[in-house]
Amino acid sequence: MTFSIKRVYAIFQKDVKDILKNLYVSTMLPVPLVFSFIAGREDNPPAEAHYIAINLAFIIITAFLQCAIIAEEKEKNTLRGLMLSPASTMEILSGKSLLSFLFTVVAILLGVTISGYQPANIYIISIAIIISIIFYIALGTLLGLVSKSVMEASVLMMPFLFIFGFGTFLQGYIDKYPVLTFIEYLPNIQLVSLASEVEMAGGIADVWSQLAVITMWAVVAGILVVTVYKRREMNE
Question: Quick check: 83 and 230 in contact, CB under 8 A?
């Protein structure tokens, strides 16, 4: 079966119509922008200040929105209809992810405009952000698939909001609590580390390890999504 853009677009259109009736987006979208405004008020803020807003956009908009979209489909029992339709797994997952991807890109572009963030190497940063978006979409999809309702999905997302949204604040405790060393390998921390290297005129050779770690998170999350989705498809 060939990949059909028409099927993907049809799924995307349905999500757009559904989300316009939901206050979720309108209430969540401004939150990262508030932190962008705070960062923008500082004189020459460090990269970390900009990435508090960017990482919040990833978890609040990308993951939360994606999780809510999938969980709502399950709650309404319409996900089963998609699974039984002629659309392939990749078409369904792509269509269900497109809205989250676009909202995230818009939120980040607005955020960096407000904060005045101008990375030294826009190409490396863009690659890292796109890979990060893929990871957070996969995370949201995975949590949506294992949730029974939108309310349950929101509760499941709370620990991830803390870890991926504000994980940078935990770095100061690593020396005191060595068990927290794993925090340094989280995708949000790796993204901040990559951005800091870029600001010091670092090239792709200097940030390949951070890119590799973020990519690994995205690949593992994607594999888990496909596995859980296929299992649910068989159970249905």
Answer: no
Supply the pLDDT for residue 123.
93
- Chain-centroid distance of CA 99 in Å reads 12
174 φ, ψ (degrees, to nearest 5): -65, -40
What is the H or E stretch that residue 113 is in?
helix 89-115
Rg (CA), the chain: 18
- Which stretch, 45-54, 96-105, 149-158, has highest mean pLDDT? 96-105
pLDDT in tens, 160-191: 888 887 766 666 667 677 777 778 889 999 99
Q: Which of 130, 142, 141, 139 is nearest to 165 (CA)?
A: 139
Tell me the pLDDT tens digit for each residue of 142-154.
999 888 887 888 8
CA distance 213 to 28: 28
**At what angle are helices 5-20 and 89-115 packed, to 10 degrees?**
60
Tokens of 2: 């060939």
CA distance 108 to 114: 10
Residue 116, classified by CB atoms within 10 Å of its CB into exposed (0-12), middle (13-18) or buried (19+), is: middle
Helix/strand/coil for 109? helix
